[in-house]
Write the structure tokens for this entry.
Amino acid sequence: MPELPEVETVRAGLARHVLGRTVTAVDVRGPRTARRQAGGAADVVGRLTGRTLTAAVRRGKFCWLLLDEPDDALLVHLGMSGQLRVRPPASPDEPPGTHLRARLSLDDGSALDFVDQRTFGYLAVPELVPTPDGAPGGLGSDLAAVPAPVAHIARDLLDPALDRAALAAALRRRRTQVKRALLDQTLVSGVGNIYADEGLWRARLHGARPTDSLRPVEAARVLDETAAVLRAALAAGGTSFDALYVDVDGGSGWFERELAVYGREGLPCPRCGTPVRREAFANRSSYSCPRCQPRPRVR
DNA sequence: ACCGGTCCCTGTTAGC
DNA sequence: TGCTAACAGGGACCGG
């Protein structure tokens, strides 16, 4: 699934391949692709055609390409199955796949394809708004602005401008469970179900721990360990994935080799050998070690 | 302001 | 074998 490491891999690929290119034509298909744009697909096409792509930026799981006027951007969210693929100039003219949602034709004959099976992803061309703290809006640009739909998204764990101490304090002020807090993109962004479980395992915390019961050292530890998981996944993604291809079926080498608990019900905990347990969590699943991560007492 | 539940969607897989 | 149901997931949205 495209979470922070996968989206960052995509961003870096875009930075290498499409910056400086001008959009010569835009084809948007499917009723959901432009659903976040007030004017719909026609508005996306109108705002994008003829523009030049000047920077590739990311915050959390949101990625955007700055356009040649510094007041808007092409915003992309990959949802749970989205891909951005660069088609080189003069590449074989294959028929568009059933899941092709948009194609940007570029002035060197290449194309940027947005492919999305489950349609949770979307494209939009929103206005930019200033960041409250005046710091750069995301990784990949010094511009102190973000697309309007990203304004409420917190900085992510790999953001150089993140205030880690303030985040740990904010985490402890929440009145919820620690896993819910890790997944709350308005508190800290980029963490999904997989990396939340892996970070909690590394920090030896159960996801149901009330945030206001975390000791300061525990709050710092779960943030540090989750950041470490993200960095390790990013490093693996950089080596095992093709330039702009992230395998949404999860078949990458990193997932096979490095995941400690996620998706591993019944398999031994890498630390103590106890079989990994699976529990229902918010209409999905949580994986943890029963011994390393004891369930907190109900308060 | 904060918190938790629901819904959006479709391909794959498990179970009957 | 063929069908149905569960499952995967992020975030907008809404009610409390």
Remarks:
- The CA atoms of residues 137 and 145 of chain A lie 5 Å apart.
- Helices of chain A lie at 4-17, 40-48, 164-173, 178-183, 193-203, 216-240, 253-258.
